[in-house]
Design goal:
Blueprint: E1 6-7, H1 9-13, E2 20-30, E3 34-35, E4 39-40, E5 43-50, E6 55-56, E7 59-61, H2 69-81, E8 95-101, E9 107-115, H3 118-127, E10 138-143, H4 156-160, H5 168-178, H6 184-193
Parallel strand pairs: 2-9
Antiparallel strand pairs: 1-8, 2-5, 2-7, 3-4, 5-6, 5-10, 8-9
Family: Belongs to the Nudix hydrolase family. NUDT16 subfamily.
Pfam families: Nudt16-like (PF22327)
GO cellular component, one term: nucleoplasm
Length: 198
């Protein structure tokens, strides 16, 4: 997967009818705990293991009946995360950017991020097995390790060496930087150490 260009919401909406639109979201919460009583967890960031064995964010294709990008996103979040996602109601203000991919089909991937309280995020995790798509399109939620262990590989670098769907890996790196969840220098080191970059 090559580098993809970032577009604004308006630019992405001006693309012609040959493009399909999908919306995905990063949900996160501050997480004060320490792993082994020592390593700060920083934040809880949610991704999911998908039916195809790749990691991605909750969300999906926007259908014509949805009416707007955000309506499509909120419907997909309910299908994939369960009824507990209904109150999240992501909005235009949660927009981070769009990327387009020409292959295997013309797709605009819109990306959102929203900060929750740790209580809200834990409630989502607890209800996720009740989602319509649980066990089908969604095999489980995972938290992203944001730390790097002493060996320089364990944690975020090893997580980044997984297989990601579409440009989900770039979206993850973008959001971790933009939301200040991981310091930029550490993010670049983890990206390089993963042996999975572009
Ligand atoms: P169906 O109900 O089977 O259509 O699935 P869906 O609507 O949930 O769609 P899905 O989430 O699989 O994503 C729609 C498109 O976006 C597909 O082409 C995926 O390859 C791609 N995609 C899936 N997850 C992500 C993601 O986290 N980031 C990006 N950039 N693309 C993704
Ligand atoms: Mn143990
Ligand atoms: Mn879906
Ligand atoms: Mn989906
Ligand atoms: Mn869908
Ligand atoms: Mn579906």
């Amino acid at each position: 997967m090559g580098e993809s260009r970032l577009l604004s919401r308006a630019e992405a909406l001006e693309l012609g009818p040959g493009w399909r639109h999908a919306c995905h979201a990063l949900l996160c919460a501050p997480c004060p705990g320490r792993l082994f009583g020592r390593v700060p967890l920083r934040h809880a960031v949610l991704m999911q293991m998908r039916f195809d064995g790749r990691l991605g964010f909750p969300g999906g294709f926007v259908d014509p009946q949805d009416g707007s990008l955000e309506a499509g996103l909120n419907r997909e979040l309910r299908e994939e995360l369960g009824p507990g996602a209904a109150p999240l109601s992501l909005a235009e203000g949660d927009y981070l950017g769009a990327r387009c991919e020409e292959t295997p089909q013309r797709l605009v991937a819109h990306f959102y991020a929203k900060r929750l309280s740790l209580e809200q995020l834990r409630a989502l995790e607890a209800g996720a097995t009740k989602a319509k798509d649980h066990g089908l399109e969604v095999l489980g939620l995972v938290r992203v390790p944001l730390y790097t262990l002493r060996d320089g590989a364990g944690g975020l670098p090893t997580f980044l060496s997984n297989s990601f769907v579409g440009c989900a890996r770039e979206q993850l790196l973008q959001a971790l930087g933009a939301l200040g969840l991981v310091p930029e220098a550490e993010l670049r080191r983890a990206d390089a150490a993963s042996g999975n970059g572009p």
